Amino acid sequence: AGSALGRPLSLGMTVPPSPLYLWRHPAGLNRVRRAWVIPPISVSENHKRIPYTLVQIKSDKQQLGGVIYSIKGPGVDEEPFGIFSIDKFTGKVFLNAMLDREKTDHFRLKAFALDLGGSTLEDPTDLEIVVVDQNDNRPVFQQEVFTGHVLEGAIPGTYITKAEATDADDPDTDNAALRYSILDQGETELFSIDEHTGEIRTVQVGLDREVVGVYNLTLQVADMSGDGLTNTATAIIYVDDINDNAPEFTREEFSVRADEAVGGIDVGRLEVQDKDLPGSPNWVAKFTILEGDPNGQFAIRTDPKTNDGILSVVKPLDHESRERYQLRVAVQNEAPLQAAAPKAARGSATVAVEVRDVNEPPVFHSNPLRASVAEGAAPGTAVATFSARDPDTRQHQRISYFKDYDPEDWLRVDRATGRIQTKRAINPASPFLKDGWYRAIILASDDASPARTATGTLSIEILEVNDHAPLLTSPTGTLCSDPSQGSGLILGATDEDLPPHGAPFHFQLSPGSPELARNWSISQLNVTHAWLRLRTEAQEGLYSLQLEQLLNVTVCRCGEAGVCTPGAAALMAGGAGISLVALVIVLTSVILLLLLILLVAIFERFRQRVREKGLLDALPDDVRDNILNYDEQGGGEEDQDAYDINQLRHPVELVPPTAFRGRQPLRKDAPYHRIPAQPSRALPTSPSDIADFISDGLEAADNDPSVPPYDTALIYDYEGEGSLAGTLSSILSSLGDEDQDYDYLRDWGPRFTRLADMYGQH
């Protein structure tokens, strides 16, 4: 056991290991027992000769065969199980499986010694087994592909990127000592790698993105300081662009055409080329007009896809004033050009622009045009002359004017001159007046083909005129007869005029009646109200005060609260009272009204008599068949109006409608207010129309409340019973017209044959 204290046991032993006395008991009765310090036992990973005896442990406390040995810990009864075992009688420890240092680099076990009865002979002691590393793992790059960027033209030694690798072997041995190298980088060696750190840098000048934009490098890493296991990866080096190439025009001269009087249109393209990276600020072109455009009528923008310049007209051109433009333009990049970059051979170009003549719309001399008109201006009042000119001076064209928008139809426009007048009086209350302004749109059009039209806006200010006097809000009021009672009478006024012809109002008593100022006073409250008071006590009654408007004030006796007592306020004969002039006016108005009513009654009575006479006049017979009026019998006391047989006759001339403008006479049994209109009826012009004429007449008579029959039975006379003719009233009959037999009319002669054909059975 003493020989094992200073040296670890290694796997390379070819002879059986000597026993290790983990528990040693020196001679002497009173000596304290001490456990041995056992050095680690080393064993190589990946050992293939298994089972393999690692060590034999012994206890000197019992004779051989009297001790039972056991071990516990990882690799025995803990994960990973079954790697180690022990012969319980001999104490030999065996390796039963291959070890992997990368998984477990050492094991710490507990050794136990028991007697045959199971009692503990010795305290447990530690047994440490160390796994010795072998170079069984290749180095591995952390990435399969490493990327880096470097600016073109970079100086030697410029850092680009770093390649990193790892090795699972013991880092304290050469098994994990890594070295980096570049296996392949193309024809030119522009890059290097640090063998210890893996940093990749440039080694010489000559990087040009326009020549080679991307480099692919093959990297290698090896352990054992470069002599062991190896692995490879790829490094991609991107050469970033710098602005080392200036943009150039493809030509020195360009020619385009542009129509006059049109703005905001593209007229041509200016092609450029640039070798730098497309889409980058080093490639994007920026154009400048150096000369030839003093008024800023042209602009050049860049096409983001092609990098060409797009020439556009931003302000309308005028062919009459200038027919041709010669522009000098330049191009450069958005990013500044590198100082060492060569200058462009065609960094500027000339652009010739030809202006083509087209028909232009008229141009108003002033647009929008403002004018003013006083409210209430008479029709025909001049407003303004909204004239325009034709910019096409080389073309003789006539301009016409007309309205496009005039919502109130207030204006009249002279077609030839553009002179505008009012067509009718302007209504200040129009909804189209906004803050006192009225807007109309006038058009000016030339006579070309096709015609061109200009639009002009006319804004008319409607000037307020003081044409309305202020009016009292209430022309009546009540005051206490005692000035010390009540709060007086507050007067208010309104005015239809707008400012500045409205408020503030000035209230005063009529200067023509100085006696009013002795008894009354008016003081201003605000811009629209005043305070009327009595100066001295006045008698009760009605007083008329002359302001700009007549104010009737009732003076009454008031109680303690300053309110008129019941019955105290009444019109009285004394005091101011109603003036004689006012009384005469009222009486005259009443008399005129009575005379007017009397005249209307006399006129209405006269019209009624004329109408009644016209209804009773007989009409002369004509050559056609007529129903003859032989006799008419009244219907008794209840029937005051005979049956109007004229409804069934055929007069030669109808009574003119104007003869019956008055109210039609009504039967007494007619409903109240049932007075339908009586339209004129056309006479039949042929025998075939007689049936329709009679039918229409019967229907009109049935529905006319002014003549019988109306929806009631009319009793004319009682002639007894048993008449063969029966009743003639369709209202009292229980049978309809379709149940009656009219064939007997044929026996009455040729005059009734037509009726028999119409109503008889067929």
From TrEMBL:
The record's principal subcellular location, in a coarse class, is membrane
Task: Classify the source by domain of life.
Answer: Eukaryota
> Which keywords label this protein?
Calcium, Cell adhesion, Cell membrane, Cleavage on pair of basic residues, Glycoprotein, Membrane, Metal-binding, Repeat, Transmembrane, Transmembrane helix
InterPro entries attached to this UniProt entry: Cadherin (IPR039808), Cadherin-like_dom (IPR002126), Cadherin-like_sf (IPR015919), Cadherin_CS (IPR020894), Cadherin_Y-type_LIR (IPR000233), Catenin-bd_sf (IPR027397)
Membrane-protein topology: Single-pass type I membrane protein
Kindly list the places in or outside the cell where this protein is found, as annotated in its UniProt entry: Cell membrane
Question: Which PROSITE patterns does this chain map to?
Answer: CADHERIN_1, CADHERIN_2
Spell out the molecular function terms from Gene Ontology. beta-catenin binding; cadherin binding; calcium ion binding
Looking up Pfam families in the UniProt record yields: CADH_Y-type_LIR, Cadherin
One biological process term from GO is: cell migration
Q: Does the keyword Cell membrane apply?
A: yes
Indicate the transmembrane segments per the record: 580-603
Domain named Cadherin is located at 50-141, 142-249, 259-364, 365-472
Q: Offer a single GO CC term for the protein.
A: adherens junction
What does it do? Cadherins are calcium-dependent cell adhesion proteins.
PANTHER family in the record? CADHERIN-15, CADHERIN-23
Q: What is this protein called?
A: Cadherin 15
Question: What species is this protein from?
Answer: Sarcophilus harrisii
